[in-house]
């Protein structure tokens, strides 16, 4: 066969295959557009409503009071909850997958939201890293509190090994197990050896849940201002940013549910109340104290600082 004729037939076949691929792609994309449009509209509506709620003065000024009331009076619910509920099981899926890695979930989702929001607003790497440092400082605070509480618990408690009492026919019904004291044992090693630990402690689960809830509300409260600025510039926030915001709100709801379950099904007075108080003090020292200082004083600034125009900042301050 002539080489010229062979090349022409090959190019003609390639053009036909390319046209077929274009038609197939158009047939696939067209139905997906009709599916994605209502989903995108629903996403915009839900995130706008949630942004308005979290950005309202009622939530910003009184959320910590509501959380304090929940920690104080939540254990009262233990008189009404069922001991046979799935949430009364300490090995429930929510406890295993979320409670034991509370800070990890909070750090990943909140950090991703801060990075995407800051960079999409100002396109400044330095400003984005400055806002992201708030999560790092909160992580350092949580790590320091965890280490300090562990040291205090080891110093204020003692490890005991239960021993079977001597059998006595007269007092066998009321006999109590004997306790053998084990010195130089930490709480972790004592519980790992299936022994009994007695002492004062502070609920670290309540501490990190309260701190994470307060942190999420602070960081998510500026999304409404971002939507207002984008609307004024006739721009629409990206779908990934809205999805991240929605995931952070869902995470906030999960933390609230877990906190309520801990208080209702596993009440521990005053350990949980002390943990909630420390979480509140940690939030207070960061967002109501250090972050309100100027950058020259080593502060990363409050959420939204330097991201919005002066008119937005004036409206927010009012």
UniProtKB/TrEMBL annotation:
<feature type="transmembrane region" description="Helical">
    <location>
        <begin position="243"/>
        <end position="266"/>
    </location>
</feature>
<dbReference type="InterPro" id="IPR019388">
    <property type="entry name" value="FIT"/>
</dbReference>
<feature type="transmembrane region" description="Helical">
    <location>
        <begin position="62"/>
        <end position="82"/>
    </location>
</feature>
<protein>
    <recommendedName>
        <fullName>Fat storage-inducing transmembrane protein 1 homolog</fullName>
    </recommendedName>
</protein>
<keyword id="KW-1133">Transmembrane helix</keyword>
<keyword id="KW-0812">Transmembrane</keyword>
<comment type="function">
    <text>May play a role in the formation of lipid droplets (LDs), which are storage organelles at the center of lipid and energy homeostasis. May directly bind to diacylglycerol (DAGs) and triacylglycerol.</text>
</comment>
<keyword id="KW-0256">Endoplasmic reticulum</keyword>
<feature type="region of interest" description="Disordered">
    <location>
        <begin position="298"/>
        <end position="318"/>
    </location>
</feature>
<dbReference type="InterPro" id="IPR046401">
    <property type="entry name" value="FITM1/2"/>
</dbReference>
<comment type="similarity">
    <text>Belongs to the FIT family. FIT1 subfamily.</text>
</comment>
<feature type="transmembrane region" description="Helical">
    <location>
        <begin position="102"/>
        <end position="119"/>
    </location>
</feature>
<feature type="transmembrane region" description="Helical">
    <location>
        <begin position="35"/>
        <end position="55"/>
    </location>
</feature>
<feature type="compositionally biased region" description="Low complexity">
    <location>
        <begin position="298"/>
        <end position="307"/>
    </location>
</feature>
<dbReference type="InterPro" id="IPR046402">
    <property type="entry name" value="FIT1"/>
</dbReference>
<keyword id="KW-0472">Membrane</keyword>
